[in-house]
């Protein structure tokens, strides 16, 4: 059963992603990994857009797909912003190919 807009706990951050101001500095190629409250799983959403670019059953799979999209569409320039189920930003990862290995502590 679908939740109404009033019942959606993620309403505020969804507005921010759709307007393109979910994070302070944005890139045209940024992608957000956000929970899909209607059908479950996780969506990959381009900042400033409503429609999902991709859907995955797990957050990890959605994050992987978001990185692939950033790499393919923006020649590696763009960030993947990962949200918690409550909409808060949990983590972000730069898709920059030129990023120094010293700066990228995650990989």
From TrEMBL:
InterPro entries: DUF2188 (IPR018691). Pfam families: DUF2188. Residues 1-107 are annotated as: Disordered. Residues 1-12, 40-50, 61-74, 88-107 have a biased composition (Basic and acidic residues). This is DUF2188 domain-containing protein.
């Amino acid at each position: 059963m679908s939740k109404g807009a009033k019942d959606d706990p993620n309403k505020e951050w969804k507005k921010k992603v759709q307007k393109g101001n979910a994070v302070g500095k944005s890139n045209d190629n940024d992608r957000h990994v956000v929970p899909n409250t209607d059908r479950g799983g996780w969506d990959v959403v381009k900042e400033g857009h409503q429609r999902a670019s991709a859907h995955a059953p797990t957050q990890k799979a959605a994050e992987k797909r978001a990185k692939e999209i950033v790499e393919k569409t923006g020649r590696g320039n763009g960030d993947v912003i990962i949200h918690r189920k409550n909409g808060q930003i949990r983590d972000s990862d730069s898709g920059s190919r030129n990023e120094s290995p010293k700066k990228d502590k995650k990989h």
